[in-house]
Write a structure and sequence with these properties.
- Helices cover 28% and strands 34% of the residues.
- By secondary structure, it is α+β, with helices and mostly antiparallel strands.
- Strand 7 and strand 8 form a beta hairpin.
- The protein starts with a strand and ends in a 5-residue tail after the last strand.
């Protein structure tokens, strides 16, 4: 399986977060990942959190990288943000009224996997979301619809009340 890797330089201006989201959305659309709206929106949120952390907490330029499976193929989408800060990331627990401190908690809750590693004199924080094979829809009983992904995963959703 082939993998596409793309990257973008991130400056220290907070406006870079919006630029990173727009850039990532266009790359996801071009790779076919954008066809899965839920996956795309989750990835954009994760990218926003990781880039925001780099911009706000390091004061260093960073690099956003994405590794994307080939068009319509299953596999993990990996997002990495590398910066020159040697300080490791620190997951915090925000209290009810706190206005920050939830970023890595959010990443932990949404990503299938996440972590960090030393990279040169700095570090790279990464997360992955698994991309299932394209779903195969089939009808269920009593107004239910089923979407079965290859590999045996099954999700169910109601399609409306029967009258």
């Amino acid at each position: 399986m082939q993998v596409l890797q793309v990257q973008m330089e991130i400056g220290t201006d907070p406006m870079e977060v919006g630029r990173a989201r727009r850039w990532a959305r266009s790359r996801l659309a071009g790779s076919g990942v954008g066809d899965d709206e839920q996956l795309t929106e989750t990835l954009i949120l994760l990218i926003s959190e990781l880039v925001t952390n780099a911009v706000l907490h390091t004061g260093c330029p960073a690099v956003l990288r994405m590794r994307l499976p080939e068009r319509h193929a299953p596999g993990a989408v990996r997002v990495e943000v590398a910066d020159a800060s040697h300080r490791p990331p620190r997951q915090r627990r925000a209290d009810g009224e706190d206005t920050n401190g939830r970023g890595l908690e959010l990443v932990s809750g949404l990503a299938d996997r996440w972590g960090w590693q030393r990279e040169g004199t700095g570090k790279s924080i990464w997360c992955e979301l698994d991309r299932a094979a394209p779903p195969v829809a089939r009808a269920g009983r009593h107004g239910e619809s089923f979407t079965e992904a290859r590999g045996g995963k099954l999700a169910m959703g109601a399609v409306g009340a029967l009258g």
